Amino acid sequence: MSEILVLVGGVGADAAVTKPVLELVTLARRWGEPSVVVFGSTPDVDLLGRYGVSTVYRFDGPEYADHLIAPRAEALAALVANRAPVGVLATASTDDREIAARVALRVGAGFVYDAVDVLADADGVRTVQSVFAGNYAVTASFAEGPVVVAVKANAVTPAEVQSPSPASVQVVEHEVSAGARRTRVVASEVKEAASSRPELGGAAIVVSGGRGTGGDFSPIEELADVLGGAVGASRAAVDSGWYPHQFQVGQTGKTVSPQLYLAAGISGAIQHRAGMQTSRTIVAVDKDPEAPIFDLVDFGVVGDLKVVLAQATAEIAARRG
Ligand SMILES: Cc1cc2nc3c(=O)[nH]c(=O)nc-3n(C[C@H](O)[C@H](O)[C@H](O)COP(=O)(O)OP(=O)(O)OC[C@H]3O[C@@H](n4cnc5c(N)ncnc54)[C@H](O)[C@@H]3O)c2cc1C
């Protein structure tokens, strides 16, 4: 069967088999056999085996952690040239997307980023992108070369295989070129404080607050926590200093595509929509019945978010026991 390489983002301790990676593996099985590529650590081979991964290619070496993405892009491109896979899949995180783009350039392949689906049937492999703030869906096919795609989180539900067996690990040697080592990380990285909430970009549920919160994000956080979701914010809320910038959703913030997006006190400006419009189910709470966000929603509540969110949180908590 044809091999498809799935990139695990990060290096060493940061290289985790996250839900978005398992989604890529599940997508890859639509048209081939997924193998995983990882830098500096051995992932959970039992977990990967359960999702149908038979081989893990592992690159080791300090240059992957000490430098920016160039060594990883070069190593992955060399592996692609060597293995001749039919596809390379990466998540839509900033680093993984750039690595995938560089790999495509090096191996002469077509590249699609921010895909929301990858289809495979008798007509071949096609990607689906949601563009112009989600108003159009673009389907693209590949004329030649391996299919290199960066896929948004929540494109598919990860599915285990029926007869799993642990993945085997192959250590791959690669001499990183001087050119790829030109940019080195010299200062220590400052890690964000760990949060018990899921990472915004890959979360299945996102609850976002806007200017309508008046600066009090506690109803947003409480609802997010009872749902096990991540917290997001509009730019108006971020610019007001009410919530940190890394939680901004939209054109100049994060792009999210969860199963459920709940916007509270967010009017639905085009720049905000650009970052959340591909969410599966969209719910909005706004006191203005004319707010543009209501043009977009599956379910809307007109009311004061403090009242509505508190009621929803209490009801969900009671039902969950
Ligand atoms: C180049 C550019 C890039 C941008 N990028 C982004 C981006 O990435 N992300 C982003 O979000 N924006 C972005 N913006 C800003 C965007 O245009 C809007 O200004 C912004 O999204 C508005 O945020 P908001 O919906 O929270 O505020 P508002 O538009 O002021 O809406 C607040 C809403 O809250 C409602 N409300 C008020 N009180 C309550 C209450 N008690 N209960 C319920 N509802 C209430 C109001 O009725 C209103 O609908 C960008 C703009 C530009 C020009």
From TrEMBL:
GO molecular function of the protein, one example?
A: electron transfer activity
> What are the Electron transfer flavoprotein alpha/beta-subunit N-terminal domain coordinates in residue numbering?
8-185
What Gene Ontology terms for biological process does this UniProt record contain?
fatty acid beta-oxidation using acyl-CoA dehydrogenase
Spell out the InterPro entries in the cross-references. DHS-like_NAD/FAD-binding_dom (IPR029035), ETF_a/b_N (IPR014730), ETF_a/FixB (IPR001308), ETF_asu_C (IPR014731), Rossmann-like_a/b/a_fold (IPR014729)
Source domain of life is Bacteria
Secretion signal: which residues?
none
Give the UniProt keywords, A-Z. FAD, Flavoprotein
Record-annotated residues binding FAD?
211, 234-235, 248-252, 265-272
- In Pfam terms, one family for this protein is ETF
- What cofactors does the UniProt entry give for this protein? FAD
Q: How is the cofactor bound?
A: Binds 1 FAD per dimer.
Subunit and interaction comment: Heterodimer of an alpha and a beta subunit.
Q: What does this chain do?
A: The electron transfer flavoprotein serves as a specific electron acceptor for other dehydrogenases. It transfers the electrons to the main respiratory chain via ETF-ubiquinone oxidoreductase (ETF dehydrogenase).
Q: Can you tell me which family this protein belongs to? A: Belongs to the ETF alpha-subunit/FixB family.
Q: What is this protein called?
A: Electron transfer flavoprotein subunit alpha/FixB family protein
Q: Which organism is it from?
A: Nakamurella flava
